[in-house]
Input
Amino acid sequence: MSAAPLVAIIDDDESLRLALVGLVRSLGYEARGFPSADAFVQTGELASYTCIVTDIQMPGMSGIELKEYLAARQIALPVIMITGRPDPTLEEKARASGAAGFLRKPFEANALISYLDSALGTASS
Amino acid sequence: MASDLDILDLVGESIVVRDLEGRIQAWNTASEALYGLPRNAAIGKLAEDILKTQYPAPLSDIQAEALAIGSWQGEITRLSATGAGISLRAHWSVRRNPDGSAAAIVETGRDITASKKSEEALRYSEYRYHNLFKAMAASFWELDFSGVDTILRTLHKSGVVDFRRHLMENPAIVRDMMRATRVMDVNDQSIALFGRGEKSELLGNVEPFWPEESTQFFAEGILSGAARKPHYTVECKLRRIDGTTFDALFTAAFPPDSMGKGTLVIGIIDITERKQAFAKLEASERRYRDLFHYMPIGLSQIDASRLIPIYKELRAQGVTDLKAYIDEHPEFLDMALEALHVEEINDHNRQIFGAGTAAEMYGPITRYFQSALPTIRRSLETRYAGGEFFQEEMKATRMDGSVVDVLFSTARPGAIADKSLVGFIDISARKRSEEALRHSEYRYRNMFQAMAAAFWELDFSGANDLVRSVLKSGVTDLRAYFAANPAFVRKMMRATRVVDVNDQTVILFGGGDKQALLDNVERFWPEESTHIYSEAYASAADGRPNYAAECRFRRADGTLFDGLFTVAYPPKEMGRGSTMVGVIDITARKQSEEALRASERRYQHLFQAMAVSFWEVDFSGVRDIVRRLRAAGVTDFRQYFKDNPNFVLRVMRATRVVDVNDRTVALFGRGNKDELLKTTEPIWPEESWPDYIEAVLSSLDRKASFSIETRLRRLDGTIFDAQFTAWHSPDNKSAGLAGVIDITERKRAHVELERSNQRYHHLFHHLPIPLWQVDSRGVMEIIKELREQGVTDIVEHLDAHPEVFARSIDVLSIGEVNQSAVRLFGARDPSNLRGPIAPYWRAGDNTLRKILEARFRGEHSYQEDTKLTTFDGRTVEGLFTSTFAPALTELGISLNSFVDATEKKRAEEMLQRVQADFAHAARVSMLGELTASIAHEVNQPLAAIAANGEAGLRWLSRAEPDVAEVREITKRIVADARRAADVISRVRAMAARRAPEHVPLSLDDVIREALLFLRHEVQARGVTITHHMARNAPSVRADRTQLQQVIVNLAVNGMQAMVQSTDGERQMIVRTTVADGPGVICSIEDSGPGIEAASLVRLFDSFFTTKEGGMGMGLPICRSIIEAHGGRITGDNASTIGGARFSFTLPAAH
Output
């Protein structure tokens, strides 16, 4: 199973980050957590990831900014965005940036799973 | 020798020459003056027709005796042309013809009318003095001071210069002086006042009568006498034989001639009663003032609020001695006076100042103190030094600019710093009489003239030569020249030759025989009479026909005598240098006059100084009336007065006032003595007629004296209280003396005392604050015991002996209570409350202990907020005051008052509730603003839980469930759930509506919690918050939620402001520091744009906001929360990181 897709989980809230990593792993993928977008970018191993799940509001680079950063570098990683804020304009902004999915906390696990499935191009087993 | 007639005219005595038929042949100028008849109207007339002489024997016998032995002499009386009686000492000598037969009788008449009168007056003066001494309602002592003189002389010799200081420093010497002062005589009053019935007991020295405490007054008296003061009066304690002391008004008069003679008379009046009345009055008034800050006199309330900042400023400058300060800044006094405003006065005050209405007097006090700047200055200095009471006599300026003597007193009630009460007592009447006393003067009387005459024939030619040479040298004013050159005058005397003298001269001037006197005149003129010689000579040079003067001469043996010197310049003698001079010995007259004056003075001095109004009356008219009634059969005059109501008026009108003293003029009159020299009717008001009748009856009963307390009337119609004493001469039935002592003050003191008590009771019962008296004698006993046991630390002692405190409560009981107190305690009537105090102190007996401690420390009152249990079982809260000032302690009571604060407390609670409601509303609104953050804070753990749950399910759904993974996940779920619950509980706390609860807490803890609450908000806005904590910050007493609310509110404000300015880093520093006070300061600084200047002043106004959609309630609520915690909040732009800064201070919890 060494070929299992690698998913990056970016959230400054540790408990949620751990929860998401756990969830993704329970789906059979590999997952790695980062406390910020900047920390993720600094790994320099973006190519090894298949998908990104990120919070929008974080210290430093936001989720949307991360998407714009990747786009600027022609890196077409699918980015699924999550927010805890009720701001109604956020979804539009997220979609406009090219997000592969948009979720509001708290969210249904299935909604995330289906976004992941479509992003990773795999049908539910 | 000059002609017969000239010589007759030189004599000051009347000379009448008559022939044997009685026809007048010669009549000199002295006769013209004496009888008021010119010479030409007398010459040739029969002497007995015009002279109406009363001889001591039939005229024929006298004439026969004169003719037989050549002379006769005796006292006769005649009538002058004006009908006045003349007493003469007549000397008849027979002039004979050359053949020895009798030709005429020469009568030399010496007018002794004045002398007679003088002797009579002397006798009368002595009698009056004696009578007053005996009968006056005062104690008189005749003392021999010669021993004191000796001591004074010894001191002087030993080099003592400052006697006052020496005596004050050495009371033992004063006691010696007392022992050296012998008592010569005392009157009956003295025996009554000092002794035990035996006069002899008093006739030692005066030392036993002067208690130690009065030693200085005796010394002052001695010093006054030595300083030639006319009299000395003092109020002091004196001691009776039995050792008891009493208050006395002591007067010593020092007539000018008394010094050196060693004896003088002192008078003593017992003023114990007056003193006691005043002392009681004072106590009563103090009690009154303690309670109500009121004085029973001219009263002004002064608004001193403008003075307070002035004093504060001075104190801030470090001024401690206001006196020195005013010395340097005299203008300060004007400023201070202008700062003091009369704002209320009573009617008495209005009258004293002659204002039409009270309002006329309102405003700065400056104008009333124009004549009393030193007084008001001292008053201000006293006030500055913390004194609460000041009193001084001063001259107040009235509305019309006139001044009035007042006793000025001012009190600043401790509780009301910005009000002063000023009292004025009008003492002008007293001052006026004191003035009159000072101006009392002696009345000198002219006496008789003429005694035997000495004739001198003098040759002035030598003197004339001297004067001529002086005139030639250019001198024009002889008098001035003589005055400037007495030696020259003496030279003139030596040049004045005695040509001849008569036998009388030899007798008068001595020297054995006539030849011894025929020299020059210089030796007969002592230095002191040089000016008389000068004047006589100058007068002749002026062309005056004669000159006469009283003058001292020297006899051949060197002794001096008083002479009446007469010089005439008969026209035909002028230029011949020979002049006749007559000298009459007036030594006896002088001495008689002197004796009279001395007696008068002794009498005058004493009674002027005694402040006794003295009346000399002539009863002869009354005696006539009485005699006629007796003749008509009236025997019971008491009954007669009753039956004839108008008889008393007749008696009064028949009583003539002969003389009164200055004191009488001051007391009764209007400055003019003559107004009083009529009858006694005006001074007796009808209400006092019964007293007058008693006085008259006592006189008719031949009682020596009579004394009564009555009311008399002044000429201006006002009536006053008086002690009236009358006494009657045992030998002269028609002469009467009366003494009047003004006892108004004593009476007034009694009346005022009564009034003060009434006023006290009236106010006590009707004041709208609860008042009750507590009988505190038992507690005073306990305190006394404790002191006797040597207790000094009362707190410690009561801690160790709780039973003492318990006993002190048991002995306290409530006495009088007022209506307000009855209402406060919920009683039905005052009697419900009388009795032990303990039931009312169930809630606050610590207050009683504090009172006991205060009493023990000698304080005068105690005040504190406390709780009382009422008669009907309620608990009331309020300000309790117990006053146990000395005036009250004397009465064995304390006065207690209570200002009910239950209502106030209720209002305060209501206010607190409303504030809490507002704070709550503000929190809710704030939570609304923070909804997004809160939602995020809750969603975060919820999302984690959901994800974890889903993952867990999947691990469990595997063919081989991974239990280890599921355990980890479940742990995380529990933690997340707790985290969500925490957020919810924080929000719930913020949203809760409950009464604030003040507990000690750490301000930094509260800040930490608040920042936790804001964690997401801070993060979301990209703000960095730093929290700097003070070291050793004290805890504060506060409501946790409200304090969090304030911090959150301030932090959110700052963050919002920083978000508005998009550029730059968003920083915030929350800092705590330790404040003086002690307390803690919390400041919240941001790096935002700061507060606009225009907004700075309105920051904390309600509904003021710069935020869109803001309510403008955040900061006002912050302020009300901080202030409710006893702190302050401010906002400015002093942030260390460039933006706004909000700071609040909270006092430390104890």
Summary: Residues 12 and 35 of chain A are 4 Å apart (CA to CA).
